[in-house]
Amino acid sequence: MAFTAFSATAAAAPHAPRKRSWTALILLAPGIAYMLLFFLAPFIQLVITSLQAPADTGGIGDYVAAFQFSNYAAAIQEYWPHILRSFVYAVIATIAGLIISYPLAYLIGVRLRPYPMLQGLALILVIAPFFISFLLRTLAWKQILPSEVIGTDFSVIFGLTYNFIPFMTLPIFASLQQLDLRLVEAGSDLYASPVTTFRKVTLPLSMPGVVSGTLLSFIPMSGDYVNASREFLGSTSTPMIGNVIEASFLQTQNYPLAATLSIILMAIILVIVATYVRRSGTEDLL
Amino acid sequence: MVRQMPEDPIVRNIIDLMRGAQMNRRALLRGAAVGAAGAGTLALSACGGGGGGGSVEQGDGSAGSIVWGNWTYYLDFNEDTQTWPTLDEFMAQTNISVDYIEDIDDNNTFYGKIKDQLQLGQNTGYDTITLTDWMNGRLIQDGQVQELDASRMPNTKNLLANLRDSLDVDPGRKYTMPWQAPASGVVWNTEAVPDGIKTIDDFLRPELKGKVGMLTEMRDTMGIIMQGLGTDISGEWGDPEFDAALAWLDDAIKSGQVAQLKGNSYTQDLETDTTLAAIAWTGDIAILNSEQGERWTLEVPESGGVITADSFTVPNGTTPENKELVEDLINFYYEPEIAAQVADYVWFVTPVEGAREAMEAINPEQVDNPFIFPDDDMNSRLHGFRTLTPQEDKKYTEAFSKVLGL
């Protein structure tokens, strides 16, 4: 909707005074400066780093500027299992999060609507874990889960699901909170079964929340390196691509590899997200 | 200035609890583990010695203040008063305030955290750090640390002769001064593993599947495995010897026999029985045993353990004034009585000549402790990992990292 609204306005005012565009530019300047400083500049630096070649000294962390594009092919060849594992984990955890979050958000946003006090309390319960550090919460699960489970695919996916549930619940809640219950009522008045009403009315109207929630969970999950870390819920058989990037930056100091993998991760996420948004018919969210 | 406690008993209670939690040693260790997992931003300044509770006089800090980054379990600590006795004594004597932070979990990870500042010669946030000598060698070669002024540290004449030239890139110790000489050996849960670990193949016994831990410090883990396979790690060896040991480790990890690979936080896995047998640093186990009733047995295997030194360095970004304060600190810890007091707690080989005699008065039981004052038998078992060339360092570090799944 946002794009349509913008273009409609532009069409309605083709001869907008020149002065206005300057105002718009001035207003946009802080945002543009922010993007240049904190996104574009680091990104360019990342691209430059990703093309570096080992220095003649051959020591740890010694690299020189180059255009070694083969870094990309080598990184994919070596680390495709880690990349694949990351996305498989993220997809499963996102689906698990959705299955848990939707009913929860429905309960809070629709069923508890007549009881504002309870609704507020339920929302606080969803957000409350955020008052504790992400790392400590994850570490706590290491104590709670049986030691046989720690270090398995299950424990990592469990950790991802748990840690990102509020990111899924809150946008869906925000959508369902605005759901006009008279439309649901109209559905049943028209002899639609509860399932049909949900499918034809509630779900489509809450789709923006579902899309936002899945993206807000999936993107950080794909790049997560805490849950799968050996120090937390992972083991040597569960590292995600984030763990490889972290180890390459901090331990083996292989900066070109770390930068290459970061860019590959970013590109894959971008493609997946764009495809998902297009398919879900909610391009206006972008 | 000491602030008045609130009247309300409940609020008082909460404040007491919070203070206790801040200085609890277990919490410090957990914090360090968290830091290791990539949370470099997690500040642990709450554990600064200057902020400690207790009744020990700490001086007024009027002579300046410095920040000291160190490993966990690496300075004498009094559980009852929640204070660092020797550090407090130093602060009281000199009025130099020391912010003591135990956040080194792994040499590489810690270096990764401060490397940008080191390369730019900027302040790293630490006036002195005690990394391991092989890493200090790298810092010296890259010109990232300052030369120490020996004339300000007369006590360093007490440095054990065999440590004076033990870092090949720093003969005579111009840039480094050993803090402790940690040794690694093998540890096992005495009750669960009654037969103990005598050779590295004992780690592969079926009943220990998934309960074996190793260190992420390549030289300690690979050093013990290589020696177990018959290599003299301080002598001439090359790719075949390293590769054979790495293959042993790879098999042990892939088969699920070795399940835990950690930095300093491996002690938590021992405490929770997640790990029943492991490669470990001697001093850590001594402290765990003293806190938890002698649950573990530690030995340096016949085939050999690894010894190195963790040494004080002053990064380039530290001001000349603060470098002098660090030199005062080093000088203080080279007094045999102070060194003995630290050794009595940390259980690592002390680098200070005369500490053994001083130990007679502090704790006579420790005088014959071979982990602090190695006897001939212990000396014959402990070996240093030979210095690697930059190319070898890179190749072996990356190969080791791959075996860890990364």
Automatic annotation (TrEMBL), chain A:
Predominant place of localization: membrane
Keyword Transmembrane among record annotations: yes
Name of the featured protein: ABC transporter permease
Residue ranges crossing the lipid bilayer per the database entry: 22-44, 87-108, 120-140, 152-174, 257-277
Superkingdom classification of source: Bacteria
Key word Ribosomal protein present: no
Keyword entries, A-Z: Cell membrane, Membrane, Transmembrane, Transmembrane helix, Transport
InterPro entries the UniProt entry points to: MetI-like, MetI-like_sf
Location in or out of the cell: Cell membrane
Family: Belongs to the binding-protein-dependent transport system permease family. CysTW subfamily.
Coiled-coil intervals, chain numbering: none
PROSITE patterns (UniProt xref): ABC_TM1 (PS50928)
Ranges for domain ABC transmembrane type-1: 83-276
Pfam families named among the record's database cross-references: BPD_transp_1 (PF00528)
Membrane topology: Multi-pass membrane protein
Automatic annotation (TrEMBL), chain B:
PROSITE patterns for the chain: TAT
Keywords for this protein: Periplasm, Signal, Transport
Classification via InterPro entries: SBP, Sperm_putr-bd, TAT_signal
Main localization of the protein described in the UniProt heading: periplasm
Subcellular locations according to the entry: Periplasm
Parts of the chain that traverse the membrane: none
Name by which UniProt lists this protein: Spermidine/putrescine ABC transporter substrate-binding protein
